[in-house]
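Bumping my old thread because nobody answered last time. Still need a sequence for this structure:
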């Protein structure tokens, strides 16, 4: 348990260290954002809400070491409420990445050990490292409209447009997990998918449309459909909402081609090995745009594309987040032995 935080960098703060009670982010494995602490009722926030000059605004991002263990945080606070723009969390995450690398180098040079002895009088107490400061007195930015969880996911996912492949099929993906943050990103996405907001659906839909426009220009598709709803166990799952919104924006018909496959548990690729096979309830012949929110292994994409190709020649598959499928490398050279085996067959 963290006993105190040693401020290895600070702006607008006169103290070199603070107790853990006053350093909310010391316990957080994901970014935090409180626009006005005085509106919050959680007991853990009480130390920040009291005193002569209580805090009103607080935001932080965790610092991880090379083993992805939390060792501190980057934070910003103010005595006045604030409505930050959508770039605040991503900025704090960028600073935390740099800080993590610097702390790792300092640790290798044994510079941190001396600082630990200086700031801690109890040998069995743990110390967290913080970089903190108070916000400058500038005008508060315009609110973005997304929730903190949505902003965290949108700001931390890697923007990586890729053509991913699984066996004989390929599909476009626009985002990828950020490895040190993946478990937190997955947790955030699960929370969002439980009740997707119109703002979130609108943002992702436009991102998919923009990605397709840059890749293919005018779409050959004449209808829009989606990977069947499954582990969300509801008809208005995220992939369906995205497909409906994209269809509306492109002025194309939305057609729910597949029957839902409501399943319990998680949507982990291993859990999907035992799920029922997909079934088409609306056979189609027109070129189709196939939408999925997350394609972890590409298994759903492979199965859906295979079924669609039985009745239509053109399937354009897109996943917002790509997972473990291999990226296509058209110019990649095969190993010599593999090429020789292929020629013999």
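Sorry it took so long. Here it is:
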């Amino acid at each position: 348990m963290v006993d105190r935080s040693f401020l290895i960098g600070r702006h607008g703060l006169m103290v070199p260290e603070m107790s853990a009670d006053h350093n909310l982010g010391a316990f957080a494995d994901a970014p935090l954002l409180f626009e006005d602490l005085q509106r919050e009722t959680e007991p853990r926030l009480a130390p920040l809400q009291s005193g002569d000059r209580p805090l009103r605004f607080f935001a932080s991002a965790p610092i991880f070491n090379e083993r992805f263990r939390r060792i501190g945080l980057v934070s910003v606070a103010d005595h006045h409420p604030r409505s930050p723009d959508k770039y605040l969390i991503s900025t704090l995450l960028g600073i935390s990445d740099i800080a993590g690398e610097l702390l790792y180098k300092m640790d290798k040079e044994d510079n941190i050990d001396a600082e630990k002895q200086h700031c801690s009088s109890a040998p069995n107490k743990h110390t967290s490292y913080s970089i903190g400061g108070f916000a400058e007195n500038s005008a508060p930015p315009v609110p973005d409209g997304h929730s903190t969880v949505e902003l965290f996911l949108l700001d931390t996912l890697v923007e990586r447009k890729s053509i991913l492949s699984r066996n004989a099929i390929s599909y476009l993906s626009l985002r990828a997990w950020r490895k040190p943050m993946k478990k937190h990103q997955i947790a955030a996405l699960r929370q969002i998918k439980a009740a997707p907001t119109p703002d979130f659906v609108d943002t992702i839909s436009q991102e998919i449309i923009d990605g397709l426009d840059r890749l293919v220009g005018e779409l050959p598709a004449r209808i829009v459909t989606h990977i069947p709803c499954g582990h969300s166990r509801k008809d208005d799952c995220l992939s369906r909402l995205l497909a409906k919104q994209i269809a509306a924006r492109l002025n194309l018909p939305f057609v729910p081609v597949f029957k839902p496959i409501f399943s319990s548990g998680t949507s982990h690729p291993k859990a999907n090995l035992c799920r029922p096979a997909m079934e088409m309830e609306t056979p189609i012949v027109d070129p189709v745009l196939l939408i999925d929110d997350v394609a972890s292994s590409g298994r759903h994409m492979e199965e859906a594309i295979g079924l669609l190709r039985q009745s239509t020649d053109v399937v354009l598959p897109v996943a917002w987040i790509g997972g473990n499928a291999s990226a296509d490398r058209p110019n990649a050279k095969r190993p010599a032995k593999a090429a020789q085996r292929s020629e013999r067959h």
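The chain has two domains: 2-133, 148-327. Let me know if any region looks off to you.
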